[in-house]
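Lay summary

Proteins are chains of building blocks that fold into shapes. Our project writes down both the chain and a compact code for its shape. Here are two examples, one after the other.
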Amino acid sequence: MKVTISHQSEMKFEAKTEKGSFIINCPEITPIEYFLAGIISCSASDMIVMPKNQDKEVTDLVVDGEVLRSEDHPRKFNTLHLTYKFNSDADDIMASRWVMASLETYCSTINTIRDTTAISYSIIHNGNIIKENEKMISGGSTQIDMGEIQGCPS
């Protein structure tokens, strides 16, 4: 994987990847906000692909992420809480497994920060809270095998 950042003007940069490009316009959207959006969209894409692979469908998916950061530089993430809200044609157990498989196994961005960030999550499935403020065990991931998934390649 390779990304090249080129200064455009003032605080505007162009990011070029092997697949395309996009503009980072600071301070309108800061690099740390892009970083958090990347973390969340990694898991969100898992939440669409895994059910599809099991002939299930997720609709109305919204994943909220809230971070608390250190006051001192480099202002790393201390905590990350993710709230998954979605509807599906699966039961609550399967819905919970999709979230855990994303967090524990498939989402490389979350697994990149899990050694240094306390991660927790809540799940609202079909309008019901099925997990609330569950803590993810930081450190090495566990393997929850939901098969091969082809989402946003990392």
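And here is the second example, written the same way.
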Amino acid sequence: MITFEAKIKGRTVRMFAGFPLKNAAGAIFRTLAQISSKEEVDIFNEKFVMGFGWSYFYLSERQDESGEPFWVVLTNDYKKNPFTTKTEDVTLSLLVQNMQVEAVRVAGVQPEASTFRDTVMVLKEAINAPDVYMNRAEAAKDGDSGWYFGLLNDPNEENHDPSDYEKMPAFQFFKFRSEALRVLEMPVGTVAVFHHNTLTALVDGNDKPLKFTTEEERKVLADQQRAEFEAEVEKAKAAAQAQQAEKKDV
């Protein structure tokens, strides 16, 4: 587990993740610092909640092995029940944040908010189908994402019974089509096409193709970011060792 750390108003704040998601972690820290800069806001309490992108984040006080206090960032636990359970492992929240930020940036569109709890109308038959599409319409009410998930080239599209559909919170895509999480902040009118768990096409409300990164491009970028992060870690270790050596020589 990788530890990210920042000082906010003199307090040590830490985040734990399984991948070197430095940019996403930095965005969380910067937002916490901005909020805490307001005199009327105290973020250092167990009741603090910050909505950021797709997830919610919380702070909880801890002590390290030497008894020094620090505050840990918690988030919704998507492996259990995100409505009731929090976790110190922010990996999934940061990964989805990265995915969604990248998607809207590469497509060159303005994001439209969607959280893990917002519902998606899902055709049950499409859950395990290889070729599916998603289409975002205007949300009918609060808590509705506006997204529909259905079969591509569905021969019975006009004849489905209401019982063929299920409204489910968006985080359920972790279970059967995790790549769909990538497009959830794309604007109304967007259509995304998937073959299994691979995004194959993306268009806007005027049927204009939108850019998106391929799996191979994302892998190359991830490898590059990991290499850069590991180089920074090695540099920090070398600096710490040099500092310790200087103290011994004094």
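What can we say about the second shape? Helices lie at 22-36, 91-107, 173-176, 215-249.
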